């Protein structure tokens, strides 16, 4: 067991840089992740967005970080609920993602989100992440949401 390797993998590169969380703008992370994304299609129950993979979203191996990809899936998979007239995108209760390929720097990818079901309290969307040039699938996801409808009382 290499405890030092575990420690090194979790420490901030550069030796303990502290981020001023209190000084960051509201919704900083969403802005960081979504910067550069384009909306290509909005239809009832269907949204397609695309972006060119930027250096800031790459992992140490040089391709789109899996955590950031699931963040983008969360954001696009939530936005599609507005396309069916809901006043809220709800709260994520489950995101399941299967990674089948990678996206490299400057590669254009698209996020194709579709509503599978909107019930009384639960909604489900799917998001397919593809390489725009070839259509090759990078990841497939299912996103379940608790949808808090306003009370009729």
UniProtKB/TrEMBL annotation:
Domain of life per record: Eukaryota
Protein biosynthesis among keywords: no
Pfam family, one: 4HBT
CDD domains the UniProt entry points to: PaaI_thioesterase
Every Thioesterase domain range: 62-136
Location relative to the cell: Cytoplasm, Cytoskeleton, Spindle; Cytoplasm, Cytosol; Mitochondrion; Nucleus
GO molecular function, one term: deacylase activity
Annotated GO biological process: lipid metabolic process
Coiled-coil stretches noted in the UniProt entry, renumbered to this chain: none
Keyword Hydrolase: yes
GO-annotated cellular components: cytosol; mitochondrion; nucleus; spindle
UniProt cross-references to InterPro entries, sorted A to Z: ACOT13, HotDog_dom_sf, PAAI_dom, Thioestr_dom
Gene3D superfamilies: Hotdog Thioesterase
Keywords associated with the record: Acetylation, Cytoplasm, Cytoskeleton, Hydrolase, Lipid metabolism, Mitochondrion, Nucleus
Transmembrane segments: none
Similarity comment: Belongs to the thioesterase PaaI family.
Self-association state and partner proteins as the record states: Homotetramer. Interacts with PCTP.
Annotated PANTHER family: F19P19.27 PROTEIN, THIOESTERASE SUPERFAMILY MEMBER-RELATED
Job description of the protein: Catalyzes the hydrolysis of acyl-CoAs into free fatty acids and coenzyme A (CoASH), regulating their respective intracellular levels. Has acyl-CoA thioesterase activity towards medium (C12) and long-chain (C18) fatty acyl-CoA substrates. Can also hydrolyze 3-hydroxyphenylacetyl-CoA and 3,4-dihydroxyphenylacetyl-CoA (in vitro). May play a role in controlling adaptive thermogenesis.
Name this protein carries in UniProt: Acyl-coenzyme A thioesterase 13
Organism: Dendrobium thyrsiflorum
